[in-house]
């Protein structure tokens, strides 16, 4: 195993036990003296920007975007709609406001923040976050560095008064989705993905043609992240360990795939989603497992597809119907072609693989066990091909 891979493994393993959640702001908190200095600087800067006649509502953001005259005007109009929300009289008004935020304000402000000097951004992170929260935005961070903007709830009274159940669920889904962008290891805290799955399941049921369509892609990705999990263990360890959960395909690199199974454990107790509850429980009982640097392993294949999209769709159908067939593997076949295997489980241990084959054949008699070699991250079937 390469040194870089080992180092990533060590970091991932330690983080699994040290980190329950991932911070959404830079990890180093300023001292009280530094916070006071930031507030003093902010007050002085706001006064200088505003001039003697008026006080801007959002001094830092106003200064940030003023170099683009057309956008600065649009930004001002948007913030005034939030400061004076009496114009909101219907859900249609709320949807129009959200459309402006998501399609015009967020992407442009994100560019401005990305181009800001890192030292200055860190210095004013807290007051900037306060201003952004008031307009329905939040900064995402990894290793204390800005990685983009996400959305968050705002104008709570107006949304509660005029928003429908499906709109409020959509906002909650967006907020959970934004939280997935925080942290160096994106899958170490799966709670946002779990929230996306629970909200997404409900939203696609009550509003399939509207908000359900808006979230469809991310809902499916969140469900895949929680269920397409396997264990990666150290074969040289003195005592046999359970292994570290990894997300996706047959990945063994701690970064960025290291994960946790608390989300699956929570899903296994969720009686409001019986199909997913069943899948989660079965996965926890018998999870796919390979070593850190396998040369080959066994895969139990229930179907073959010509494209990744087809295989992904098949796996999604299985999971949502309550069938614990969670994997999709790209395989180079013996005849030189490439296909995507829809996989029940995979193991290095031949006995575990054969036991899994016997079990799934009870429901899917056509299931087969294949062996694949691993070469530079690609899988090659050791056989004639399909």
Give a summary of the structure in a few sentences.
With 386 residues, this protein is an alpha+beta fold.
Describe the protein in words.
By secondary structure, this protein is α+β, with helices and mostly antiparallel strands. The chain folds into 3 domains: 1-22 and 184-293, no CATH class; 24-154, no CATH class; 295-386, no CATH class. Helices cover 52% and strands 16% of the residues. It is built from 16 helices and 10 strands. It has helices at 3-18, 32-50, 59-65, 69-83, 91-114, 118-123, 125-134, 156-162, 165-179, 191-206, 211-227, 254-257, 262-267, 274-285, 308-320, 350-361, and strands at 137-142, 145-151, 229-233, 244-247, 289-291, 296-305, 327-332, 338-347, 368-375, 378-381. The strands form 3 sheets. The chain has a 5-stranded mixed β-barrel. A 3-stranded mixed beta sheet has the order 4-3-5. Strands 1-2 form a two-stranded antiparallel sheet. β7 and β8 (338-347) form a beta hairpin. α9 packs across α11 (211-227). It is elongated and about 65 Å long. 32% of the residues are buried.
Write the SSE topology.
Layout: H1 3-18, H2 32-50, H3 59-65, H4 69-83, H5 91-114, H6 118-123, H7 125-134, E1 137-142, E2 145-151, H8 156-162, H9 165-179, H10 191-206, H11 211-227, E3 229-233, E4 244-247, H12 254-257, H13 262-267, H14 274-285, E5 289-291, E6 296-305, H15 308-320, E7 327-332, E8 338-347, H16 350-361, E9 368-375, E10 378-381
Parallel strand pairs: 3-5, 7-10
Antiparallel strand pairs: 1-2, 3-4, 6-8, 6-9, 7-8, 9-10
Helix pairs in contact: 4-5, 9-10, 9-11, 10-11
